[in-house]
Amino acid sequence: MRTFKQYVDEAVGKFMTGEVGIKGKRVKVEVEVSGVDNKKRIYHAKVLAPKEHFGLELQIPAKVMHRGKWIKTKTGKAFEEANSKYIVSKNPSDKKWYAMGHVGNNKWMPVSSGFKNKVQAQKWAKSQDKVDIAARGEISGA
Q1: Which pTM value belongs to this model?
Q2: What span, in angstroms and rounded, lies between the C-alpha atoms of 57 and 112?
Q3: What is the spatial distance between Cα 112 and Cα 10, in angstroms, rounded to a whole number?
Q4: How many CB atoms lie within 10 A of CB 125?
Q5: For residue 14, what are the contacts with CB-CB under 8 A and spacing of at least 6?
């Protein structure tokens, strides 16, 4: 027989979508599972969508999560760009895509030539992360 923790690891992902009761109404929500209380068999989660409930902290019983219509939410590459020091943005005046480097205080500066489409700019930004890592390796080895 599996323990509750083993079942939790298989059944629940970091991001889940399902229905939960909020203020007496059934609401379809997307949540980020932030923790689990194995003694009480409760999941701690923060609501990501819908926007009117964003940030709401929920305590969802394991029984509801496991037996209800909850599914793992596919995030795809949504968080890949968040870990990068580069973002991709379109310049409205020349309609070209640029890789933007972070310069602090939520300010960004173009660090590439203009690209015709977003995919090319993203590819350049992704390769630049690898260049930065290689450069740090050469500097630390000196």
Answers
A1: 0.46
A2: 41
A3: 43
A4: 23
A5: 32, 33
Which two tokens mark 50?
Answer: 């819908």
- Domains belonging to the chain, first-starting first, are 4-72 (2.30.30), 81-141 (no CATH)
Please state, in angstroms and rounded to a whole number, the distance separating the CA atoms of residues 73 and 68.
15
Cβ distance 22 to 60 under 8 Å?
no
Please tell me the distance from the alpha carbon of residue 27 to that of residue 42, in angstroms, as a whole number. Answer: 19
**39: its two tokens:** 């003694």
Distance, in Å, from the CA atom of 136 to the CA atom of 70, rounded to the nearest integer, reads: 43
Q: For the chain, first and last CA: distance in Å?
A: 55
Which residues, listed in sequence order, are joined to residue 88 by a DSSP beta bridge?
99
Torsion angle, CA of 79/80/86/89, rounded to 10 degrees? -70
Count of helix runs (H) and strand runs (E) in the chain: 3, 8
- What residues pair up with 87 in beta bridges, in sequence order? 100
| Whether the predicted pLDDT of 28 surpasses 60 | yes
Q: Which pair of structure tokens corresponds to residue 142?
A: 């000196």
pLDDT in tens, 81-100: 445 677 888 888 888 888 88
